[in-house]
Amino acid sequence: MTQHRGRCRRTMATILLAGLAAFALPGLAPSSAEAATVHRNELIPLYDNANPVDWKMACSQSNGSHGGSYIIADPFQGNGPGSGPVQSWSNVITNCYRYGRASVIGYVWTNYGSGSAASIPAIEQQINEWYAYYPRQIAGIFFDGVSDTVPGTTTSNKAFYQTLASYVHTHEGNNDEVVFNFGANPGSGWMLSGGNAKNADIVVTFEGSYNDAGYNPYTAWTQASWERAYPANDFAALIYDAPDATACSSLSLQHLGYVYVGTWYDTLPPFWNQFLSAC
User: Fold this and answer.
1) What percent of the chain lies above the pLDDT cut of 70?
2) Which of 82, 142, 164, 278 could form a disulfide with 248 if both were Cys (CB 3.0 to 4.6 A apart)?
3) CA–CA distance, 163 with 158 (Å, rounded to integer)
């Protein structure tokens, strides 16, 4: 038995929202005040050496009652699951499910597809290791370093990433979450239109600082228009180096289902409670 929420529940929520949207008056957009009351779920990078205090706060206080938040585990700071299970990480991951508010997904680096098809077996091995090291506790995979094309070329990464998505969905279960972190707006929605097994479940279309020049500032980001053709729950934004939860007022107006605003990923921010209430 799998101890996490899956895509089936999100799909039903999407159907219900679409039905409600059909009754909206044409051309009547929600006001800023109305939009600000809509709380997103969280996609929380928590690479903090399994700090039990942080993990308890994140797992027990996230907006799971709104459909399920996700916490990204990364025991080895960008190096995937490592060579074996880590007891401290096993403890916090297992404990997380006591609260029924968030599921845990494992971090895997993909290097923007630059390893081509030859690198897929090694990435699939990391996927297998996440599920083997933390059995029945991993709800999916967070693929970092995702790109439309291989860097420095025009070679499409479509087949590369569809293969990885399909591997998770067919080997671990179609309800397991596949998150692609582009960190910026992809050029199109190919990762959402390849068929159920090949699709990502969440696409991170922004990752960067709140307002630091040279660090992809959120204040300069504009969401791509094509993304509004898909449900908001398909998209996420991750903001770091934020001084407070101010970004939430803008995030509430974006077409996003999952958000995070923090200082960095090694600890929860001092404005954690404000983030939860404002975003």
Assistant:
1) 85
2) 278
3) 9
